[in-house]
Amino acid sequence: MRSPETATASDVGSPLVAVVGTLNLDLVVRTDRRPRVGETVMGTSYVERPGGKGANQALAAADIGPTALIGAVGDDAAGTTMRRHQDAAGVDTRHVVEVAGASGRAVIEVDADGDNRIIVISGANDQLSANQVIAALNALAPKVVLTQLESPRSVTAAVAGWAEAGDCRFILNPSPVAPLDNNILSAADPLVVNAVEAEYYCGDRLLTDPGDMARRLLEVARSVVITLGARGVVVATGGSVETFDVEKVHAHDTTGAGDHFVGSLAAYLAAGSDLQSAARRSAARATDYVASPR
């Protein structure tokens, strides 16, 4: 359900947010504890549900404002299911292309504490091209464009370059971590990472304080947000570094929580919020998300 503050497509004429990213069918196994290497344990439940970082972030953004998703699905039942799921949530899917082959999949283990371990099989997502993405962005003309690193690296570079060349804010969520050219990182406003990703892009394992990591990342990115789970969020802009706490809740499932945060952040920024306010509101939404049964 959309929140009361949600704008409609007729209010704006074009999406405020374009998310470039993956659509995967999540295969979720719940178990009391995750197995050790070579060990077999019994699962407690199994469910298949639409997911993927791009899809998750688009759903979160669309709950706040007009949002479009740019991606690729296969010509299988999973692709049809995932597209319909986005359509039902009000996401503009005109630029989700269908290609021959299987849609992406993600195999997810969730333990009794709500912690997860994930394996992603890209499938159709790997067939999304930079040219397709540029054409879609030209047609959509969003205020904010958001992408991650599950898509081909040429797509990531194309999104950053397109945003830099026009009047569009570029949000980068570099997950899963991979080497990136400085020109991509330097376009990010903000660069949104968790603690593990922050350590990777800082390139210094001795740098463990989140505030210090944010300052280091500001040397390459225009602004930085570091999510610390239950320990809070760090927001860094210019010479300012702020850390704020989040509400402590029992986590039912942390899968997709980071995506929910980033998608919400993109929508709030597109609607005119400053980064600190957008981060606080997005953290509250992500907290509610992890506490909700799915």
Secondary-structure element sequence? HEEEHEHEEEHEHEHEHHEEEHH
Give the averaged pLDDT, no decimals: 89
- Main sheet summary: 5 strands, parallel
How many alpha or pi helices? 10
The helical percent reads 25-40%
Strand order of the largest sheet: 5-4-1-8-9
**Radius of gyration in whole Å, from Cα?**
18 Å
The shape, in one word, is globular
What is the total tally of β strands?
13
Percent range for β-strand residues: 25-35%
- Computed structural class: alpha/beta
Amino-to-carboxy terminus distance: 15 Å
pLDDT below 50 for ≥5 consecutive residues: which ranges?
Answer: 1-13
Detailed description of the structure:
- It contains ten helices and 13 strands.
- It is an alpha/beta fold.
- Strand 12 and strand 13 (240-244) form a beta hairpin.
- Helix 2 (53-62) crosses helix 9 and helix 7 packs across helix 8.
- The two termini are 15 Å apart.
- Residues 1-13 have low confidence and may be disordered.
Concise overview:
The protein has 294 residues and is of the alpha/beta class. The chain has ten helices and 13 strands. Pathway: Carbohydrate metabolism; D-ribose degradation; D-ribose 5-phosphate from beta-D-ribopyranose: step 2/2.
Topology:
Blueprint: H1 9-12, E1 17-20, E2 24-31, E3 43-51, H2 53-62, E4 67-74, H3 77-88, E5 92-99, E6 104-110, E7 116-121, H4 130-140, E8 144-147, H5 153-165, E9 169-172, H6 182-185, E10 191-194, H7 195-202, H8 210-217, E11 223-227, E12 233-237, E13 240-244, H9 257-270, H10 275-291
Parallel strand pairs: 1-4, 1-8, 2-6, 4-5, 8-9, 10-11
Antiparallel strand pairs: 2-3, 6-7, 11-12, 12-13
Helix pairs in contact: 2-9, 4-5, 7-8, 9-10
